[in-house]
Structure prediction request, 639 residues.
Amino acid sequence: MAALAISDTPDGRRMLALSGRLDANSIRRVWAEGRAAIAAAPGQRVVVDAAKVDYCDGAGIALLVDLIAQRKAGEVQVANLAPAFETLLQQFDPHEVEQDQDPPPRRHGTVAEVGVIAAGMGQDLRDQIVFVGETTSALFYALLHPASVRWKDVWRICERVGADALPIVALISFLLGVILAFQSAIPMRRFGAEIFVADLIGLAMLRELGPLMTAILLAGRSGAAFAAEIGTMTVNQEVDALTTMGLDPVRFLVTPRIIAALLMTPLLTLFADLISLAGGAITLQSFSIPYVTFVHEVEGIVDYSDFMAGFVKSFVFAVLIAGIGCLRGLQTSAGASAVGDAATRAVVSGIVLLVAVDGIFAVIYFLLDI
Amino acid sequence: MAPDASAAEPPAAARQAGDAIIRVRDLTVGYGDLVLLEHVGFDVRRGEIFVILGGSGSGKSTLLKHMIGLNETTAGSVLIDGEDIVTASGDERRAILRKIGVMYQSGALFGSMTLMENVRLPLEEYTDLESGEIELIARMKLSLVGLALFTGHLPAEISGGMQKRAAIARAMALDPMILFLDEPSAGLDPITSAELDALIKRLSRNLGVTFVVVTHELPSVFAIADRVIMLDRRAKGIVAEGDPRRLRDESQDRWVRQFFNREPEAVAT
Prediction:
């Protein structure tokens, strides 16, 4: 343990006698005491007596350097330091400890910071508009030149986006049907209206919850995967390699993913609709409503326009999920957390956009009386 | 700071006396507000191995990115075979990019593709050759870099040195006039590094390709370079240009001598 004894000599010098072990675990107290002792003796010469120091590592040397630097050169001296430690101390000039030559990073005031953030959001918006333009152009090109599409990639991505997502979509949709049925059947039983639960599940799932829940699941699953995959390619300079080969990263990376999402999201939505209806039908068995009654009731209330209202949305959701995932991936910057950040941003902005667009659909359907 | 002209005389080899295939003029290099190099200019001659040297953070890789059009350039021009990549867009830029190949520091092979598929990709995108013909060309390119037996491997299944050689094979797929190599020796052991140097020399000699290499590995520089430029962060420009051996032995610039002789800037006593 380090210790510090402070005394004044008859000839007017202040003595700081250090003893024990000077390392990072033991010097905190003596460091503060030493500084205070020097500050409390203005005008006095100071001698730091290190005769009883048993051990001194880099932290101990930093303590000595700091004590010397408290005053002008020559006013604080270190005496009796063992030669091995003295060699260490000689490595540093206490009055000229090297500082970073680069200017410190510029810090903005509050107002400027708000401006910087606003400019960043504006830039992000511009990037999104440019990306929408590039993607639209690439999709039209793919439509006119189907041979230019890398179909091998499309099928590979289809498998990951569609087939691999079936279990989770099935589970969530089934549970959604079950929960919706239970939650609505219990209060409706009071009025003897359990039969209308089938109407509720049919309309809610096909028009709204089926497409939206499937899209949110895909945003969390495939949107994040797209962002992470393309983000990793960006960090590994694979996107740069494409660019310098003269190959458009949007055509090469984004188009196959959007096509795959466009093919798979509506199918998954249909699947989710069916499974959730099955969940509702099974639940209503416990309320004495047989399958045939359930099916008959759903057929009676849900018409073609209800089905299409949900189905059409799933195409738009597909473009949103894949587009935002790819955009965030291409925007990935450098650094250890960059890919994770890209995936997070893809999921967050994907879900926000999905809900916002779903709201717009609701208004349009209301105005069109669909 | 003006470039050190003491060793600027070109080597005698005939192929190095070629005309300039790249002309960089008045180029300012950096990111956003950060300027790394100001108003730099130099020529790369047809067929030579031209090395861009400099300490860490001196702007070597950033200069390379400006030269291949990856970074937006605000001032200056980079003429590649007479066409300015800075102002070119669309088809013009694609035409310029067809003349160059790039090997990135990490190799940047596409991880989901085999070596064969990586090398096939530019051929599939740019030519209308039959699949079998593309296969043959890709196999020959991989053979040139000694990877004929690894065509079915994924990048993750081969060593770092092999990945870099495969990246060179991919960069050569369309027989470019110029190959840009960013830190080819980075992260490689001395033997693999020497093998890569030998490969670069061999490709330069046999195929007549112009190489622009960014590195700070001195053994590689002395092994391959016909001519070097040396960048310095403090000078924000080129501080020396010429034959590396002559620069090492004859340069009057203290920092250049320190660099070539691997002397630390400040020796603690």
